[in-house]
Design a protein that fits this description.
By secondary structure, the chain is an alpha/beta fold. The chain contains 19 helices and 13 strands.
């Protein structure tokens, strides 16, 4: 051994018999660690035992560190094919990206008669996108239209950057915002339906094998297995949503039979629906200056100036080019608006695109079959709106934030209230028992008793049916 000072590790001596096979008589040298310097004794004198205990204490082990949330750098791309709302849609895409947590670094547009089938944009613009992504460390490229699976694959290959389309971005925001079990089921169903045709395999290992010598063997491919699992999951989600729809339908039927009047607040996203609900009912619903801040419908009771009571319902916001997968998945939620007795159509009066937002909302209400309902157009944020921009727009002007004009809104809802069912006590002869079936279909029978003279009942009768009966069966 050398004359240098060494540290000896006693824990290793337990394995000396194993080391002996490799090192023979010099096995002790194998247990020696690195030689210390000439001033090793000074190092031990400077050793701080308290500092070592602090580092090894349970508090030190349990210390938690918060990860910094880094936003993704995003490039927006849009193709102008002559749409009238091209600029508005692109600006909306910028807001959607910000809502999803992305940072818009650049925007690229291209005028084309129609999107290129392979890459949506021209080959020259694809090269520009690839160069921009490389120079600016872009994490994500988002297109302002729905892309086909082939387009996404080609673009990602050419740009070496992840590519999303408008629909995928909206689905991601919905996934972030969903809180209730129903909302999560609806979002997952929409995502899986959109993902299903986009499970493109990467090269031959995921494609179906052909026939012939040298091609038999593996059986079912991974791509087919993934599709089968997704189909199974979609069927399960549909079954669960059917149960949710049954419960919602039962609640709506119960409200109608008991004479509860519902008023649904609908409108473009970020128009102030949740703020209005909070202002009128102290609902405590999350209200932020973001697109789709809330997804789950919330119901609260509201007393009108006349003393009548209504159930105010806040629904999911609308948006232009709303993915049809979302419309289908959120059918039960959107039906809250379609089945409401009164619809408050809210719009942002401070937005330059207010008229187009109103038209998008009305088109979706027509699609839901709610165009025949009493619709009150309400212009929100009038305290920030330009009076010139509101010229010619009819509707109740309010500010849900400051409370301005809310008395006029409540009066308008009061005037639009449907006629309440009439409470009547009737005696139906046995020959006219069919009237009881009509009452059950449109109203509610509170009590019934068969007597010698006929069926004695107390019921809430729909006004038209009550007028038709007159006092013929009154007791």
């Amino acid at each position: 051994m050398n004359d240098k000072d060494y540290i000896y590790d006693p824990d290793l001596t337990e394995d000396a018999d194993l080391i002996d096979e490799d090192y023979g008589e010099d096995w002790e040298d194998a247990l020696l660690l690195e030689p210390l310097g000439d001033d090793w004794d000074e190092d031990f004198d400077d050793y701080d035992e308290d500092e070592d205990e602090e580092k090894s204490s349970p508090q030190g082990k349990d210390r938690m560190y918060e990860n910094e949330q880094v936003s993704q750098r995003v490039l927006l791309v849009s193709v102008d094919c002559g749409e009238a709302d091209f600029e508005e849609s692109l600006e909306e895409l910028r807001e959607l990206t910000s809502t999803a947590g992305g940072e818009v670094i650049g925007v690229m547009t291209q005028k084309l008669s129609s999107p290129v089938s392979a890459t949506c944009v021209g080959s020259g613009r694809v090269e520009e996108i690839a160069e921009f992504c490389d120079l600016n460390d872009i994490d994500l490229v988002i297109f302002d239209r729905e892309l086909t699976p082939i387009q996404i694959r080609n673009l990602e290959r050419e740009t070496s950057t992840r590519v999303l389309d408008r629909t995928m971005l909206i689905l991601d925001i919905f996934a972030q915002r969903a809180r209730s079990v129903e909302g999560k089921l609806q979002v997952e169903l929409a995502q899986l339906k959109y993902m299903m045709p986009r499970l493109t395999g990467s090269h031959a290992e995921l494609s179906r094998l052909g026939g012939g010598i040298g091609t038999r063997g593996p059986g079912e491919t991974k791509l087919e297995t993934d599709r089968r699992h997704i189909r199974r999951r979609i069927d399960l989600l549909k079954e669960r949503l059917r149960e949710v729809e049954k419960r919602r339908a039962a609640h709506r039927a119960r409200r109608k039979k008991t004479g509860v009047v519902t008023c649904a607040i609908v409108g473009y996203t970020n128009a102030g629906k949740s703020t209005l609900l909070n202002r009128l009912t102290d609902a405590g619903v999350l209200a932020e200056d973001k697109l789709f801040a809330t997804l789950d419908p919330t119901s609260r009771a509201l007393t009108l100036p006349s003393g009548a009571s209504v159930t105010l319902v806040d629904t999911v916001g609308f948006i232009r080019r709303l993915p049809h997968h979302l419309v289908e998945a959120f059918k039960s939620t959107l039906e809250e608006a379609a089945d409401a007795d009164i619809i408050v159509l809210l719009c942002d009066g401070s937005d330059e695109d207010m008229c187009s937002h109103l038209q998008v909302s009305r088109d979706l209400l027509n699609e839901l079959g709610a165009s025949d309902k009493p619709i009150l157009t309400v212009i929100n944020k009038c305290d920030r709106a330009d009076p010139v921009g509101l010229a010619g727009v009819t509707g109740v002007r309010i500010s849900a934030l400051t409370g301005e004009g809310l008395d006029r809104l409540l009066t308008a809802i009061d005037d639009a209230m449907p006629v309440k069912p009439v409470r009547k006590k009737l005696l139906l002869p046995f020959t006219d028992l069919g009237v009881a079936a009509d009452i059950r279909a449109t109203g509610e029978i509170l009590s019934e008793e068969y007597t010698a003279e006929g069926l004695l009942l107390e019921a809430l009768v729909e006004p038209i049916l009550a007028a038709r009966m007159g006092d013929k069966y009154d007791v």
